[in-house]
Amino acid sequence: MTKQPEGSYTVRALVQRAQAFADVTRMRILHLLLEGEATVSDIATRLGVPQPRASTHLAFLRQVGLVSVDRLGRQRVYRPDTAGIKAVLEALRTLTPATPPRSLQAVREVRRNTAMRQARTCYDHLAGVAGVQLLDEMLRHEWLEPNAHEETPRSLYRLTAQGTQVLSVRGVDVVRAHKTRRRFAFGCLDWTERRAHLGGALGAAILEALVRAGIVQRQPQSRTVVLQKPVGDWLDAPSSSRSPV
Hints:
Elements: H1 8-20, H2 24-35, E1 38-39, H3 40-47, H4 51-63, E2 67-72, E3 75-80, H5 82-93, H6 104-112, H7 115-118, E4 120-122, E5 125-127, H8 128-140, E6 144-146, E7 157-159, H9 161-169, H10 174-179, E8 186-189, E9 196-199, H11 200-212, E10 216-218, E11 225-227, H12 231-236
Antiparallel strand pairs: 1-3, 2-3, 4-5, 6-7, 8-9, 10-11
Helix pairs in contact: 3-4
């Protein structure tokens, strides 16, 4: 039997680990799991991919040790190797610009100032110009403030008491957002604007409230959404004049 060169297994393991980070969908799954554990159906729904495809990627991530799975009743819950994933992501960030340039498709969206650029979903929260403006307005009004108590490459935020009140009267389920296993609120780098919009459980809860209030209208089979009125107007409107939810 041919003897394997010394260190060959280590090299093979490194290649497999590198492959885990070399696929867009797998990277999206890892970022999603860093927000909190999830089932395969949760992952497929939030990423907008077929469940068998999500399962295939999760199986590969388990094979290389980046993801583990536990059974809770009839469900299988996936958990990330948080320390290992963050270490690799941090190393990759040292090799890339602080703000990566726009992709060619994003450049075209910006140049044409398309509806996709103006307002769309990113996973389950609001993105595009509207999403960036939402985060800017919440920070300007001091309804959100930086949360520096947790070490992470992303900007984390927490709601102030005033922010909690303002969002609650506008139909945002802040209590439920706090109870989810995912990160509560963080800055998610926008695909076209290259600035942060609001991600996490709070971002998802705000988008749900905007849809219920008729401010945002989803489009079938599309990430693009239609704004019936500016999100800033919804935030600034007195609670008595807001749309019913």
